[in-house]
Amino acid sequence: MPTSSAAAKKASRPAARATGRPAPELIFGDLWEFDPAPETADPKLKPRYDLFINGKFVAPKSGKYFDSINPATERKLAEIALAGPAEVDAACKAAKTAFEKVWGPMPGRERAKYLFRIARLLQDRAREFAVAETLDGGKPIKESRDFDVPMAAAHFFYHAGWADKLDYVAPGRRVAPLGVVAQVIPWNFPLLMLAWKIAPALAMGNTVVLKPAETTSITCLKLAEILQDADLPPGVVNFVTGAGEVGAALVNHPIPAKVAFTGSTEVGKVIMRALAGSDKKMTMELGGKAANIIFDDAPLDQAVEGIVNGIFFNQGHVCCAGSRLLVQESVADRVLAKLKTRIRTLRVGDPLDKNTDIGAINSREQLDKITTLVAAGVKEGAELFQSSCKLPAKGFYFRPTVFSGVSMSHRIAREEIFGPVLSILTFRTLEEAVEKANNTCYGLSAGVWTDKGSRILKMSTELKAGVVWANTYNKFDPVSPFGGYKESGFGREGGRQGLLDYCQLA
Ligand code: NAP
Ligand code: MG
Question: In this structure, is residue 352 part of a structural domain?
């Protein structure tokens, strides 16, 4: 519902229908105010969350807890236990016993039942989890409700379906689990990354010790409640919470046979250096600097929607965010004008409000990083455009931002910003587009917008990216493997390929 002031503004516009004159141009920037529409489901948060080890919530021996805050308000949500080396060790030992005595020997058809149960219990509590995810991480409720939680459940369903069909993962070969897997995940998709990690590992017969990111541990610990309700045998999944030191203790612990890491390229390299020479298997899902490439024959309005979805979705906290826009010179001005118009209509604010398009930046640290890189863009001479929307007084927010006149040497064209900031570069020929798109140390994803199928096929073979979307962006499915080239890492998550990364072949 428009508020009365917005309604009054609308009423003051020329009455097109009444006079028979052509409808006036819609005046953007004159955004209708909506009444607040906050999601009201109870997130059922506890004031304090302990570690989840061997099927039970246990307090840390040190007695230390840290706060998880709501980045939209900067208010404390809950206290989270800080794991020490003793708890990491206990979790790894519990996982080893569970692997040897229960989960490893269990037939796949029995493991499948647990995974189906977890998926269904998560669906039952979907609203509650969506609100908890939004409160803890800052993402808009429409994303956690319509994307993160259903997609997490879908990953459990999909892998439940595989658990009794493992003979078909590598036809002609026999597959066997690896043992205990150490998993470390980031803060941008806390529940979804957790599902991407634990569902294939469990389907294959491995057991897990996982560390969520320090700023977003709540849905992980809520999922532990579901694991208890599903009667998952103790020790099959263990959660240790804390910051980077806990992750380091986990990946360097002698028990895990594999480390599955999702996070920054910088930390990925630290882990790879530490594990070099060990016999641990690794998969690394690291950073990205994706190019969204628009040719002059693309449906431009559709492409603009795709660009907006590609970079402003989840505040740009997306490893595969289309943070570079490569647009063919002949349509560059039109695309920029359309983008500016569209950006003016994006609503930034309370993540719990169902109308919000862009929620809160996950932490002050991340907000500072975005601010620094945007300042560097201005200093290096790129042209800045930001929407003029109002931002809440408290909390971490950043306006949707577009830089035009960017060149490949600018920091904003090279470094991962991980925020709602788009850098626009232009190109003339297909070859130049490929050259610019591939001119990065990353290679996670790319997008191509064109009317020509042949051009899509050519681009998708020439782009050095693990995923290439055509005439769409940021589309996911558990069936479809996801992963990078170059410094975006190695290994795949999802699909048959993802399962292969959790087994040994005989
Ligand atoms: P990050 O700083 O690398 O942290 C990732 C995880 O590693 C966190 O749980 C972190 O703990 C932990 N960690 C930090 N230092 C560690 C160490 N020395 N040993 C072991 N673990 C350690 O990344 P982030 O800032 O959370 O996440 C953003 C990054 O993730 C971006 O670069 C993004 O592109 C990438 N990402 C990639 C994918 C993909 O699929 N390729 C998907 C999502 C995100 P704390 O943060 O709790 O301290
Ligand atoms: Mg938080």
Answer: yes
